[in-house]
Amino acid sequence: MSKNAYRLITLLAAALTLGSCSKKIKQQEDEVYSRHLQQHIKLTIMSTPMPDDKSEMNLLLLNDGQDMEELNVKEIITDLYKKKQIKPLVVVGIKSAARNDIYGVAGYPDYQNRGAKAGKYAAFIDDELYAFVKKKAGVRKFNSVVMAGTSLGGLSAFDIAWNHADKIDKVGVFSGSFWWRDKDAASPDYSDEKDRIMLNYIRSSRKKPHLKYWFYAGAKEETGDRDKDGVIDVVDDTKDLVELIKTKNVCSPDDIVYTESAEGKHNQQSWSKVFPDFLVWAFGK
Fold first, then answer.
1. What is the pLDDT of residues 126-163, one digit of tens each?
2. In angstroms, rounded to a whole number, what is the distance separating the alpha carbons of residues 158 and 245?
3. Is residue 155 part of a domain?
4. Number of domains in the chain
5. Which structural domain, as residue segments, surrounds residue 84?
6. Over the stretch 56-77, which tens digit does the pLDDT of each residue have?
7. Residue 4 lies inside a defined structural domain of this protein
8. Which of 171, 118, 129, 126 is nearest to 148 (CA)?
């Protein structure tokens, strides 16, 4: 083999190697200091390759970022991106060690005073994290911004999206804690109509957020059935919220997706199974 031919083969091999590396999903650990929460917040940041036009990059803010590995987020995004089913994407997993304090409904702690810092957490997302991620990604503005979460993190994601639709376009809620209440359900005067905090808040809200909504619930998540109608509470609470949003006329009925799994349990394994569907809904091509 001639030296020129050998050199050409070497250059082609190097180019192919660099090309394959550039298509890999990048992941790194980071942190940002929050003045609102007076602490450093740890982050897992994952991204697909940057498109030529940076304005085509999208953002997913994910509560309970410490669960990303159990949710198989990296594997799912890698597969969907390789199949060209999702647009370029940055995922920021926001890790939480004090979720009972910061997740909830801003300004409305529950009957055990959980969620007392939900307003400060929302301010962190809006005032601090969004700017930090833009700078980190090197973009002036993301094409679309989606916030999502599971369980209590799902309640938080919905609350933040509803109140910050100037920055957030869509919200995804996996088994959201919409039972969140201002009175113990065992109290003789407890009422679903009066004491579920988020539903009351939305019912009285004058906001008209231009959002799109994706909800999931599993039929085997629990055995609780407050109203004794044969349907578990997580399903009832989620469906009640969906119907309430529809009556508010804040979006087209087609902009609300509700998915239910007959075998779904309240765990990362069940949420991971529907995570690809959510990502395609949120960022599909």
1. 999 999 999 999 999 999 999 999 999 999 999 999 99
2. 12
3. yes
4. 1
5. 25-283
6. 999 999 999 999 999 999 999 9
7. no
8. 171
